[in-house]
Amino acid sequence: MEKTKQPIRVANAVYYLLAKMLERGVYYGLRSIVVLYMVDKTLQMDMMEVAVIFKVMTASLLLSQLFGALLGDLLIGNKRAIFIGGIIQATGAFAFCIPTITGLYIGIFLVVFGNGLFFPNIIANYGKLFLNAPNVLDSAFSSFYVVINIGAFLGVLFFGMIVNYFGYNTAFITAGIVMCVSLLLILFVKENDSTVTQQDKESQNKRIGYVFFAFIMAGSFWLVYNVTNIQLVEIQRLIIEDGSLKLSGSIMYSIGLYTMLFVGILAAIIWSKWHTSHFFKLLLGFVFASVAIQVVSFSVHAPADEVFALYIVAIVCMVLAEIHIAPVVFSIMTRYINPKYLAICVSFAMLPASEASIITGTYDQFYTMDSLSILRIISVITFVSILCVGAFLWWYRRTHRDILN
Question: Where do the structural domains in the chain lie, given as residue ranges?
Answer without folding.
Answer: 9-186, 202-397
